[in-house]
Specification:
This protein is an alpha/beta fold. It has 2 domains: 221 residues, Spore Coat Polysaccharide Biosynthesis Protein SpsA, Chain A; 144 residues, no CATH class. Helices cover 58% and strands 10% of the residues. The protein is built from 13 helices and 7 strands. The protein has a 7-stranded mixed beta sheet. Helix 12 runs antiparallel to helix 13. It is elongated and about 90 Å long. The two termini are 43 Å apart.
């Protein structure tokens, strides 16, 4: 018979709670007449968790590579269900009430996130820093970077179709796997929604595997690396225009040593900001060509609007303009302040022109993979 639902749970030494989790998952499917399976992605348990899971009829997939993401992906890839729901094996998720997830998946949604902030939160269910600092901040950043409207980016209870999972091409190894699912689904423009869910205090007595600051950084790092626009482009554009405005103001004012100091600062800001923009372009092309980031419509347009020839023309024009200004600055027989008003813009123009020429060649080399 065709498997309708696979309930997937990663595990590492959860002997205290794994029995309850499997039992609740099986009870839910039995209550709602769902043909399904429970799959445990074991990450090297030595406390009897594997034996307990097998004795209860669960499928155990042994995943040698350490990490929450590795254990989750290993179990998901072994799943046979049309729908997949992931949960933790610490007995903190409401596995008896998964019907809202199934209903949304039946409606055509490809990713259904649990939202612990809209559901009931039992006492001591979430640590203070996770509830009021880490999760809200990372959720805000994730929504800002990837244009989503998810209220709980890191709820471990979530459902998606097996077809959606195959589209997402997930590859995170650690806790950032939770972020990757939402990020990739957003980039691929999958149908995403969320449902309230109750969160309980974890049933284990040992310390959790989740480490507040290291794993929080892993999530933040992932969000930054998968959004070159926010990591490089937007800061670079803001710095660049700030430098240009400052340069225009400075050309109409200033004198003496103060003028030289301010001009040098603005020169550094403009050149530094342009590096951000260059890194954005190169990072975007590299990430797409290597399958790290899904290809968007804007990405294909990039190669239509910018090519080697246009880059060479723009770069040569800026270099020529800078050379002319530099020549005028050196041959002028006026005071030093007036001379510098030619020399500083000249240096900026020449530096940007040469960088654009070099960037154009590198851009075209990376673009060869796109043409193939």
């Amino acid at each position: 018979m065709k498997i309708e639902l696979s309930i997937v749970m990663p595990c590492l030494n959860e002997i205290e709670t794994i029995e309850f989790c499997i039992s609740k998952a099986q009870q839910f499917m039995q209550t709602h007449n769902i043909i399904g399976e429970v799959i445990i992605g074991d990450n090297g348990s030595t406390d009897g968790s594997i034996e307990k899971a097998l004795s209860m009829g669960a499928i155990v997939v042994n995943v040698k590579e350490k990490g929450y993401g590795n254990a989750s992906r290993g179990a998901i890839e072994a799943a046979n269900g049309t729908y997949i729901i992931t949960a933790d094996t610490d007995d903190s998720h409401d596995l008896l009430n998964l019907k809202p997830f199934i209903m949304k998946l039946d409606e055509g949604y490809e990713l259904v996130m649990g939202n612990r902030f809209k559901g009931e939160q039992r006492k001591n269910a979430m640590p203070f820093l996770h509830k009021y600092v880490g999760n809200p901040v990372l959720t805000f950043i994730g929504n800002l970077f990837f244009k989503t409207s998810i209220g709980d980016f890191h709820c471990g209870l979530r459902g998606f179709t097996k077809a959606a999972y195959e589209k997402m091409d997930l590859n995170s190894q650690g806790m950032e796997f939770a972020s990757e699912i939402v990020v990739k689904a957003s980039m691929l423009k999958l149908n995403i929604t969320e449902v309230p869910t109750t969160v309980f205090e974890a049933g284990r007595t040992r310390k959790p595997h989740l480490r507040t600051f290291p794993d929080g950084w892993r999530h933040l790092r992932f969000l930054l690396l998968y959004s070159p626009k926010w990591l490089f482009l937007i800061p670079g554009v803001l710095l660049f225009f700030t430098g240009i405005v400052g340069l225009m103001v400075l050309l109409n004012s200033g004198s003496g040593i103060e003028y030289i100091r301010e001009s040098t600062l603005i020169l550094g800001i403009i050149l530094f900001s342009f590096q951000f923009v260059v890194f954005y372009g190169l990072t975007k092309i590299f990430a797409v060509n290597h399958g790290l980031i899904p290809k968007s419509t804007n990405y294909s347009n990039l190669f239509q609007y910018f090519n080697l020839e246009r880059g060479l023309v723009i770069g040569a024009a800026l270099t020529l303009l800078g050379s002319v200004l530099l020549y005028i600055g050196f041959i002028s027989e006026v005071k030093i302040e007036s001379t510098l008003k030619f020399i500083f813009p000249a240096i900026i123009a020449i530096a940007l022109g040469i960088q654009i020429i070099l960037f154009s060649f590198f851009f075209s080399i990376l673009g060869l993979a796109e043409k193939r």
